[in-house]
Amino acid sequence: MNMRQADINEIENFPLFDSENDGESVIVVENEAGEIVGYAQYTDGMDDAIIYFMESNMKGVGRTMIEWFQTNYEMVTAHNAVETAQGFYAHFGFDDVRPNGWAGQVDMTWYAE
Fold first, then answer.
1. Contact 76/51 with Cβ under 8 angstroms?
2. Count of CB atoms within 10 A of residue 4's CB?
3. Cα-to-chain-centroid distance, residue 37
4. CATH says 2-111 is which class?
5. 3-state secondary structure of 44
6. Closest CA relative to residue 112, chosen from 73, 55, 82, 59
7. Per-residue pLDDT, 86
């Protein structure tokens, strides 16, 4: 798998893509044929990132993206994590959980040690 920075127009064909999602930066993961199999929309600062949306259609892509974030930032927040994604983030050490009022969604944060 290959991961790289991308333009928003490269991910418009994903089923859950929403042009209203926050996050001006995009990373994509490509399979060996060069097809995009996952992406994340996020914003970042000097040492932190906020993930607004992640989507993948291939096993292991989510892990690859989270590991990239954890390698490149000291603090990573998953904004508006839906209930079905909360276990995924918890598996990777996102343990600062804060309700945000959006229909059971929470913000989950990981801190480097």
1. yes
2. 11
3. 13
4. alpha beta
5. strand
6. 73
7. 94
Q: What is the mean pLDDT of residues 66-95?
A: 95
d(C-alpha 84, C-alpha 91), whole Å: 13
Structure tokens of 40? 């994340």
- Six token digits for residue 98: 């804060």
pTM score, two decimals?
A: 0.90
Please tell me the distance from the alpha carbon of residue 85 to that of residue 69, in angstroms, as a whole number: 16
41: phi then psi, degrees, rounded to nearest 5: -105, 130
Structure tokens at 81: 């994590």
Residues in the chain: 113
* Residues contacting 68, CB < 8 A, separation 6+: 3, 27
Q: In what order do the strands lie in the sheet with 25-30?
A: 2-6, 25-30, 36-44, 48-56, 75-81, 106-111, 96-99
Beta bridge partners of 50: 43, 77
- What is the rounded distance in angstroms from the CA atom of residue 86 to the CA atom of residue 98? 12
